[in-house]
């Protein structure tokens, strides 16, 4: 049986040249699979046709925008998914969805291999390949950039050798990955940690100092899911798109960080994710109102662990599934409205309301009508600190 390689196809230079290259290296055929994840830019029909023109025997384009929003972005909102307390997992949550559709395409089109364009030093190779092995371990995996030491220079030379028409955008110094949840930029002059990012690298966000008037809005949630903006019902996808637009206009969601990669190296990454940052900030604010203290404390630990599992490519792992079950169980009362202001790159929450709120005005107020019994506090404070008081007394006596 001849090889049939199912390729995760972006439409860019590297994966376009990979089509004839994989056919040559395997002696088989290539099926290109492209997903519309709300990344914008080029028309997906043009992407489909380019794959065919480059030698693919099949070119499949899948509109996965709502699926991505509902099944991957929404769990990230519920988990307040932020790797290293900063990064909203822009690329990490898209890879398991791409894996799912590549494995399905392999089954439908008789694929024997799956292929991706990742290098050997990044996180995405792990996310793709662990996913492939979880979903169908019988599929062989080919990673040209890693397995064949495939560089951009080699890709261009090979394209010229076989007269493959390619876009001369190869001069771009950056590696960019984007979807509706956000945009990731790396490499080029950004690899020098002292170099500040220039304005030209941003596409989803305006300059924060542009001087736009503040934008106040209300996000409504039901069970942890965003369901309306300013009272207008929205799907999860529509919520992200609307907040990308409004947050982007205010320069909200820019991030410049040094990231601890799974492979053991540190990497400088630039992100812009206005919708993601706004939704997570609003969701956290609503949880502050609706989750009981001990549950909230523990959930913050779970959220951090969930983010690490997803970042590390273990979306399909048993721990991630169990953490999902816990997180879902915490969302029953995360229903209500959060009012916030977007301005000059900042997100400021200034209003909260919920029928499930645990905030009791009469207990919290310092004015007349206060129902908190302050006479209980003296004994509570003494008992709370009693164990450390005893320990400190012992240590003082030991030094005398």
Protein architecture, described:
This protein is an alpha/beta fold. It folds into three domains: 170 residues, Rossmann fold, CATH 3.40.50.620; 178 residues, Argininosuccinate synthetase, chain A, domain 2 (Alpha-Beta Complex), CATH 3.90.1260; 28 residues, no CATH class. Helix content is 42%, strand content 20%. The protein contains 14 helices and 14 strands. A five-stranded parallel beta sheet has the order 3-2-1-4-5, with helices on both faces. Strands 10-9-8-13-14 form a five-stranded antiparallel beta sheet. It has a four-stranded antiparallel beta sheet with strand order 6-7-12-11. α1 crosses α7. The longest helix has 19 residues. The chain starts with a strand and ends with a helix.
What is this structure's SSE topology?
Layout lengths: L3 E5 L4 H14 L2 E8 L7 H10 L4 E6 L1 H14 L16 H15 L3 E3 L8 H12 L4 E3 L1 H4 L4 H10 L13 E5 L2 E5 L28 E8 L2 E5 L2 E2 L2 H14 L4 E7 L5 E7 L1 H17 L2 H19 L6 H13 L5 E8 L2 E8 L7 H4 L12 H8 L1 H14 L1
Parallel strand pairs: 1-2, 1-4, 2-3, 4-5
Antiparallel strand pairs: 6-7, 7-12, 8-9, 8-13, 9-10, 11-12, 13-14
Helix pairs in contact: 1-7, 3-9, 4-5, 8-9, 10-11
């Amino acid at each position: 049986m001849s090889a049939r390689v199912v390729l995760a196809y972006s439409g860019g230079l590297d994966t376009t040249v990979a089509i004839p290259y994989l056919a040559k290296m395997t002696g088989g055929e290539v099926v290109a699979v492209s997903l519309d994840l709300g990344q914008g830019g080029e028309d997906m029909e043009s992407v489909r046709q380019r794959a065919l023109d480059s030698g693919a025997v099949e070119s499949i384009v899948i509109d996965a925008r709502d699926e991505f929003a509902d099944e991957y972005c929404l769990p990230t909102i519920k988990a307040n998914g932020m790797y290293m307390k900063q990064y909203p997992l822009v690329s990490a949550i898209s890879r398991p969805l791409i894996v799912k559709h590549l494995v399905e395409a392999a089954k439908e089109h008789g694929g024997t291999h799956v292929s991706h364009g990742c290098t050997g030093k990044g996180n995405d190779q792990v996310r793709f390949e662990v996913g492939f092995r979880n979903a169908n371990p019988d599929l062989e995996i080919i990673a040209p950039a890693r397995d064949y030491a495939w560089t951009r220079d080699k890709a261009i030379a090979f394209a010229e050798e076989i007269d493959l028409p390619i876009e001369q955008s190869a001069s771009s110094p950056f590696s960019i990955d984007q979807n509706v949840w956000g945009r990731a930029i790396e490499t080029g002059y950004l690899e020098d940690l002292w170099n500040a990012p220039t304005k030209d690298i941003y596409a989803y966000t305006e300059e924060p100092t542009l001087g736009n008037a503040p934008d106040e809005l209300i996000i409504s949630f039901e069970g942890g899911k965003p369901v309306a903006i300013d009272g207008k019902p929205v799907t999860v996808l529509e919520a992200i798109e609307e907040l990308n637009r409004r947050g982007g206009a205010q320069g909200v969601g820019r991030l410049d960080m040094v990231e601890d990669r799974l492979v053991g190296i540190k990497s400088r990454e630039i992100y812009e994710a206005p919708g993601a940052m706004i939704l997570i900030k609003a969701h956290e604010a609503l949880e502050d109102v609706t989750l009981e203290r001990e549950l909230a404390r523990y959930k913050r630990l779970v959220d951090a662990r969930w983010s690490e599992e997803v970042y590390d490519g273990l979306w399909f792992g048993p721990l991630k599934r169990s953490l999902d079950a816990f997180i879902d169980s915490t969302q029953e009362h995360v229903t209500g409205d959060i009012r916030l202001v977007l301005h000059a790159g900042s997100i400021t929450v200034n209003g909260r309301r919920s029928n499930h709120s645990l905030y009791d005005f009469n207990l919290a107020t310092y004015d007349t009508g206060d129902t908190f019994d302050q006479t209980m506090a003296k004994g509570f404070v003494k008992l709370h600190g009693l164990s450390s008081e005893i320990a400190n007394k012992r240590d003082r006596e030991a030094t005398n």
